[in-house]
Design goal:
Layout (H helix, E strand, L loop, with lengths): L19 E5 L4 H12 L3 E6 L2 H11 L3 E4 L5 H9 L4 E6 L14 H25 E12 L10 H20 L4 E7 L5 H7 L3 H11 L8 H13 L7 E4 L9
Parallel strand pairs: 1-2, 1-4, 2-3, 4-5, 5-6, 6-7
Amino acid sequence: MSTATDTAIIHRQPELLGQTVVVIGGSAGIGLETARRARAEGAKVILAARNSERLKQAAKELEALSTSAFDATDPAAIEQFFRGLPMIDHVMVTAGRPYYGRLDDMDFSKTRDLVSEHLVQALCVARCAAKKVRPGGTLIFMGGTGAKRPALGLSIAGIVTAALPSLTANLALEIAPVRVNLIAAGFVDTPLSAELLGNDLHQRRDHLRATLPIRRVVGPADVASLAIHIMTNTALTGATYDIDGGQQFVAA
């Protein structure tokens, strides 16, 4: 006597089918991986970044609707970019880089600009997105967890990461029904991290693998997965989502 086992194949509808996702900072790292994940979920993508060459490569890979190369710290450039967009569903902003430095080494003319650039960028993107993102769509900012663990050299990073959750919550009220959320990441293994750490990168990876509760390093795909979840869960707004593999709970 023989038995046959029927295997049911469940087909899942792509969660972003027919939607348009804009990624500012979408030519590398977390931004590029988020764009890849959005495409896999059926979305069309529009990419913006500073590096035009990397932007072209990313656009070719993802068959982007369009691209725009500009400096995302320039409010005028942000406004011009959004004016040229059609109606869209989601915006993710990963552009920008953290500043690390000891007090004695700071050039205050530069650090003043660094602090304001991150916050003014968020305000400017929010004002523009309010006119272009469909109701229920999402604006997602990238921040960090630096404010939760003070350390030497983290004064500027701490100021920015402490301010962004409050800004996110307020913007969620001000530009509703567009949803506004913040992803606060610890160390993420990206090309930017490699650039910042240089020869110390391998040591940092080894330390995290040994100490993090998840016993591995957080990568761009982890953050991209969270970003897509925020886009598709329409109950989420005004919140900050930590993603660090438990880094803030263990010794530095």
